Amino acid sequence: MPVTLSPGAAPWLELLVDVVPMGRVWSLRNGSTSLGLLGGSGMGPWAIGMDFEISVGDAGDLERRVVTVTHASDDLMHFTPAWRGAEVLSGVPSGNVTSLPVRNATYEGDGNNTDTLVFEYTVLPGDRTGRLDYTSSKAFKMSPNSTLLRLAHHPSTIVNTTLVAPGDCSASKEFGCSLSSNDADDTAVEIEARSQVEFRPKVLRVTTTKPGDQSPYGAGEPIDVVVTFNVPVAVQSNGSAAPVLRLSPGGFAVYGYGSGTNNLTFWYVVGEGDSADVLESYARGYANGFDAFADHLSPLDIFFLGQGQGWIRRDSSRPLTPANLALPPPGSEGSLSALQPTAAERIRICTVSCAFVEVVVSTLPPGTNCGVGDELPIVVRFNRRVFVNTSEGLPFVQLRLGAPATDRVGAREVEEEDLSDVRRAYFVNGSGERGLLFVYVVQAGDPYTDPVQVHQRSADLSRTTTVQRNGASITTAGTGDDAVLTIRRISRQHALPALNLDMTTSHSSFGASAPFSPDPSRSLMQQGIIVDSDPPTVHTVEAVLAPWTKTYG
Questions:
Q1: What residue ranges do the domains of the chain occupy?
Q2: Average model confidence (pLDDT) for the chain?
Q3: Four-residue CA torsion sign, 450, 451, 455, 459
Q4: Mind listing the pLDDT tens digit for each residue in 27-43?
């Protein structure tokens, strides 16, 4: 039947959990309001205002007091009232701080004037029980001078708040069962919160989809950084506050997606001036470059940048437990740099001293149809001169023939790469110049393609691909640094900005002039070059005469 609470009433339900040791006492004086705890206790600000029991002494002469915590950290606890009893001065742990068995589920205002009142219990670190239940049949408590009445036009009938005994069901079944009764197996609640240290989510590893063997990467390069926790976490960005990672090149990776899972993906775009020999979480010092006074922000932590308040917490129906946001130290297991143990595997960032690709085009006129045996010239144009050393191999650009590859922008899963329709345009000449010439000769059986485009590696979720070194080296003139070989994947709708390029050279003789100069504002895809290795051909020529046609000799 519906019930109604008097104005200001604050009922609660006493719940029973197991008593759990929260820490060993190694320092406690008579008359003190603080004690020292053995490290790793898991105590912290969450315990402020809660009651705990302090027990000191031998098993046969144990002194116990219940105190209220006023301040707590992992190794220190302040409380009230002052301790009066045996002391612990030797530094050898000889006492315990334990949780009390009673927790209060409070009424939050949901259900008044209905037949169901909803109470809410927040699981605290250290709470555990095999089958959650209330303390006794008198566990329903009311605040002083408050009432719970049967709902009526003029409520006057006091509600009997006696509950079914813990572990039992009502004899008539009409009043239901307790939380832990055998008949309530489908609703039995098990709690295993353990300590705060154990319960808080922690970072297991930091990874990226970017391959080190294709670096260095230059300005504008998108790089995904994935932070993996040991349990699912929830992310909340209130206002403009966003979780960010500070990285060794000097920029930030901003949270993208992953709330509700173990993996949070952060997006980093290489900025002008960014530079790093190894991509890693920031490890150059403790200062926060955006706030000189916020030196409490660890450079190896995830933190929030912007206005408002945000959080990363253990995922649940009501996330409350904050995640431990410390990242693995550089070089240690789980760190980004641990994935780059050799020079060839290092993910390098270079935006100042390295040449980079400006555009990839063909010297053929737009819409050119290439048949079997025709050369398909590809020019990779850099912002400055580069040198190519082919003594150990011949670099190439991968071209995608056939139907366009499925667009996987923002994909959450990496698809298995299909290379059956991928062809290689090998380097021909251009070392020492800004433009490198690559050529592919159309073969019989090549699938019909409109348009030809640079192949996008499926393993790279950030939508770029590269010139493949294939054992060769491509270095920047003047500095000797490896060139940035990234090629942006540009759609038909989004052209590169116009560039002041001299593209009048012929693919057959790279130093000679040709009648066509490709538009530098177009990407290869936008040029619409067609490959057709099996075009229609004339098979026979026949004269077809109608039956009534006369033949003249």
A1: 19-100, 200-350, 353-406+418-553
A2: 77
A3: negative
A4: 899 999 998 887 656 67
Say what the alpha-carbon torsion angle 366, 371, 372, 377 is, to the nearest 10 degrees: -10
- Which residues fall within 8 angstroms of residue 391, CB to CB, at 6 or more apart? 472
CATH architecture of the domain 19-100 equals Beta Barrel (2.40)
Which segments within 195-241 are labelled E, that is strand? Answer: 203-208, 222-237
DSSP-H helix ranges across 192-288: 196-199
pTM of the complete model beyond 0.70: no
Of 4, 13, 28, 49, nearest to 94 (Cα)?
Answer: 28
Residue 552 pLDDT class (50, 70, 90 cuts): low
Residue spans of beta strands (DSSP E) within 156-221: 191-192, 203-208
CA angle 121, 123, 127 (to 5 degrees): 125
**Cα 169 from chain centroid?**
47
Contacts of residue 453, Cβ cutoff 8 Å, sequence gap at least 6: 399, 400, 404, 489, 524, 525
The burial class, CB within 10 Å (0-12 / 13-18 / 19+), for 410 is exposed
Asked if 98 and 21 touch (Cβ cutoff 8 Å), the reply is yes
Distance CA 208, CA 211 (A): 8
Element (H, E) at 553: none
**Cα distances (Å, whole numbers) of residue 421 to 272, 402, 404, 489:** 36, 6, 10, 18
Residues shown for the chain: 553
What is the Cα–Cα distance from 402 to 417, expressed in whole angstroms? 15
